């Protein structure tokens, strides 16, 4: 345990002290946590508990505990089952059956469904044949009353199974089929609605492209970077240099930038110089935010690609995953400091 830090030792003991099936406590998340929060918490714990990083004798055991918790909470269907039962959804003891029984002991207290002839119960005869007959309507359950079951078109009933103690399909089922035929006929009369639904995503994309084409720049501060001055964009810098030492300040962020004296003379010779210079100040500020925004998007993409490539099919590159989590993101950090992220 010489290579194990006190923090690593405390974490291993904490995980192993929690009830194994208390998956939310194991991963240190609330029951209302979303998928992103669950994955983020698991990733942090996995880095700290992986045997390659944590030399505690029981680190591997603790790692398996969090891996099992993530296997359940990271899967929507398993998580729903766990939330309902509070037990491991992969456990085979969830139905409370009798070990060593035939799997149908849960029905031992029933004497058969009303309407089944004697001898057609689950405790007598060929059980598999009885189940097939009940599910797929392969004749009566032993002769007698001619009892039949009719399921919906998708293999399941819409509102319980339909049954009739007379040969043939019952009236409720026939009415449902008639409604389905009517809907199909109506859809054949209006085929353009189907085409509209198919091409709707493409139409939405094209409209959004057209809307965005009317303006350029960042919308992070609430308005588009529309040029509110005439002529081309003059040269400007954020640090004074020779020939570029006339200071200007942007309206919202109050950033300093510098232009040449010739630029100022050019704007002062215009019809409304103050408005034109104010438009230049706004343009420079928006252009700065636009650059930060594109840089932040690029940083996020690089980080996500590193995280995904670190998690292979058969193993996880923990060093690479840790580097991705610690990756510096200066553009995103700057936007966050401006309360724009």
Concise description?
The protein has 341 residues and is mainly alpha-helical.
Looking at this protein, list some descriptive labels.
single chain; 341 residues; 50% helix; two-stranded antiparallel sheet; mainly alpha; Helix Hairpins
**What fraction, in percent, of the residue positions are helical?**
40-55%
In DSSP terms (H or I, runs of 4 or more residues), the helix count works out at 12
Average pLDDT, all residues: 75
Query: pLDDT below 50 for ≥5 consecutive residues: which ranges?
Result: 94-168, 215-223
Which structural category do the helix and sheet elements fall into? mainly alpha
Main beta-sheet annotation: 2 strands, antiparallel
End-to-end CA span: 43 Å
Work out the radius of gyration.
Answer: 34 Å
Strand order, largest beta sheet: 1-2
Shape: flat
Can you offer a commentary on this structure?
This protein is mainly alpha-helical. Among the domains are: 80 residues, Helix Hairpins; 103 residues, no CATH class. Helix content is 50%, strand content 4%. The chain has twelve helices and four strands. The chain has a two-stranded antiparallel sheet with strand order 1-2. The chain has a two-stranded antiparallel sheet with strand order 3-4. The longest helix is centred in the last third of the chain and has 38 residues. The two termini are 43 Å apart. The relative contact order is 0.06.
How are the secondary structure elements laid out?
Layout: H1 6-17, H2 23-27, H3 35-49, H4 59-73, H5 76-85, H6 127-136, E1 148-150, E2 162-164, H7 171-189, H8 191-212, E3 246-249, E4 256-259, H9 261-268, H10 273-310, H11 318-325, H12 330-337
Antiparallel strand pairs: 1-2, 3-4
Helix pairs in contact: 1-4, 3-4, 10-11, 10-12
InterPro entries: DnaJ_domain (IPR001623), DnaJ_domain_CS (IPR018253), DnaJ_subfamily_B/C (IPR051100), DUF1977_DnaJ-like (IPR015399), J_dom_sf (IPR036869)
GO molecular function, one term: Hsp70 protein binding
Main location: endoplasmic reticulum
């Amino acid at each position: 345990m010489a290579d194990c830090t006190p923090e690593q030792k405390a974490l291993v003991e904490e995980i192993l002290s929690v009830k194994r099936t208390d998956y939310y406590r194991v991963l240190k998340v609330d029951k209302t946590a979303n998928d992103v929060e669950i994955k983020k918490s698991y990733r942090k714990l996995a880095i700290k508990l992986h045997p390659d990083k944590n030399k505690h004798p029981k680190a591997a055991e603790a790692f398996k505990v969090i891996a099992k918790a993530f296997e359940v909470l990271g899967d929507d269907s398993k998580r729903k089952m766990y939330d309902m039962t509070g037990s491991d959804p992969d456990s085979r003891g969830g139905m409370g059956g009798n070990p060593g029984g035939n799997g149908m002991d849960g029905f031992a207290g029933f004497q058969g469904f009303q309407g089944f002839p004697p001898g057609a119960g689950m405790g007598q005869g060929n059980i598999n044949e009885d189940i097939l007959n009940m599910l797929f309507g392969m004749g009566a359950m032993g002769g007698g009353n001619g009892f039949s079951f009719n399921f919906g078109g998708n293999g399941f009933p819409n509102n319980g199974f339909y049954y009739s103690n007379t040969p043939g399909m019952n009236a409720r089922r026939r009415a449902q089929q008639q409604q389905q035929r009517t809907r199909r006929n109506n859809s054949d009369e209006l085929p353009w609605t189907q085409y509209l639904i198919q091409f709707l995503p493409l139409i939405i994309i094209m409209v959004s492209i057209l809307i965005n084409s009317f303006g350029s720049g960042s919308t992070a501060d609430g308005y588009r970077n529309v040029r509110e001055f005439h002529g081309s964009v003059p040269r400007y810098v954020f640090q004074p240099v020779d020939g570029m030492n006339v200071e200007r300040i942007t309206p919202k962020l109050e950033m300093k930038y510098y232009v040449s004296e010739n630029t100022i003379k050019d704007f002062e010779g215009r019809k409304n110089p103050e408005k034109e210079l104010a438009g230049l100040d706004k343009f420079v500020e928006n252009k700065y935010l636009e650059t930060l925004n594109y840089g932040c998007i690029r940083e996020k993409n690089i980080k996500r690609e590193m995280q995904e490539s670190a998690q292979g099919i058969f193993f996880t590159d923990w060093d690479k995953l840790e580097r991705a989590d610690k990756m510096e993101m200066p553009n995103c950090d700057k936007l966050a400091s401006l309360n724009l992220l």
